[in-house]
Write a structure and sequence with these properties.
10 strands; globular; ten-stranded mixed β-sheet; D-Maltodextrin-Binding Protein, domain 2; 19% strand; 342 residues; 2 domains
Length: 342
């Protein structure tokens, strides 16, 4: 009887050990499959596909600075510059070699669309070869003249352009078919001017285009409105219209009319956003969705945006993808009108 009791106790103990082992095994499996993601476990690189000091570079560095200082991202973060081809050189490498690299993000703006759609854009890759994570900021295109120009509003310029397009020198800081050119011809195209007849003079950067305007070598320049705030404040230039849906609220821009309110349906957002690799993991996507959402709402980010003279406009991944699809159609239409589409 005593032997039977001992055997029963031993059997019960063995069963308990077996169940515990199964439970531990189950827990271990759960830690691999069902537990919270540990991403990111490595350092994060944010690429600015340009040289130091430009808009992409400053955006990337500000993004990294705020995420690091607020501890929204605790892994180390660095910014890497990859200039060449207006972003096309970097995209060729990223879209083919970094398709699953969750630790490498990059910043961009409308050129990611333009370079892919333009006949001579040198990029077979576009936003669909990435995972758009968020739009961070916005700016708008503007047509700008010197303070003493005879063109006092958008309609007077466009009417003259329609009557004799070759007589007006439109300048910009980028190549034909690039962003400044598209911003310049958009209102003309919407006003009924043949874009092919618009005389566009490309300069090597917005600063040189502005110098040409102030020196009398251009009648009007197409640019982003934020880049002429200082000249506007100093009374050196006049902004005839901006490509926003409504007037801006900032002190410098509140009195500038939109093109739309002047009867020209020409809206165009110059955004800056963050992208990840095309095959980014679900865990990484969820992590960045949460982190960037918190970043956009933080006081630290809002202060930096104001300091840089940017305009806030946050779009999460889903809204950003939808917007990019819409802007892609707009750019495609303009490039076709210019005979520059692929």
């Amino acid at each position: 009887m005593k032997m039977k009791r001992t055997f029963a106790l031993l059997a019960t103990g063995a069963l308990a050990i077996g169940l515990a082992a199964c439970t531990d095994s189950s827990k271990e499996t759960g830690s691999k499959e069902g537990s919270k993601s540990k991403y990111p476990e490595k350092a994060i690189t944010v690429v600015a596909p340009s040289g130091a000091g430009g808009g992409w570079d400053i955006t990337a560095r500000t993004f990294v600075k705020v995420l690091t200082e607020t501890k929204l991202v605790e892994q180390s973060m660095t910014v890497e510059n990859k200039p060449g081809g207006g972003g096309a050189t970097f995209m060729a490498q990223y879209a083919t070699q970094d398709t699953k690299n969750n630790e490498k993000l990059f910043v961009n703006s409308p050129p990611i669309l333009i370079n892919n759609l333009k006949k001579e854009g040198n990029s077979p890759f576009g936003y669909k070869d990435t995972t758009p994570l968020a739009q961070l900021t916005r700016d708008y295109g503007a047509l700008v003249v010197a303070k003493d120009s005879k063109y006092t509003d958008l309609k007077s310029l466009l009417t003259a352009m329609k009557e004799a397009p070759a007589s007006i020198n439109l300048a910009g800081g980028s190549a034909p078919g690039s962003m400044d050119h598209l911003i310049g011809v958009l209102p003309a195209y919407k006003f009924g001017v043949d874009p092919l007849k618009v005389k566009y003079i490309p300069y090597d950067g917005g600063g040189e285009a502005l110098t040409a305007l102030l020196g009398g070598n251009a009648d009007v320049i197409a640019t982003d409105v934020s880049s002429v705030k200082e000249q506007l404040k100093a009374g050196k230039v006049r902004v005839l219209g901006i490509t926003a849906a409504e007037r801006q609220k900032s002190e410098e821009l509140k009195d500038i009319p939109t093109m739309k309110e002047q009867g020209v349906d020409a809206e165009f957002t110059i955004w800056r956003g963050v992208f990840g690799p095309k095959e980014m993991s679900k865990d990484a996507q969820a992590y960045w969705k949460d982190s960037i959402d918190k970043l956009a709402k933080s006081k630290e980010w809002k202060d930096e945006v104001k300091k840089q003279g940017w305009e806030e406009e946050y779009k999460n991944s889903d809204d950003f993808k939808k917007f990019l699809g819409e802007q892609e159609k707009q750019i495609q239409e303009l490039l076709k009108a210019l005979n520059m589409a692929k």
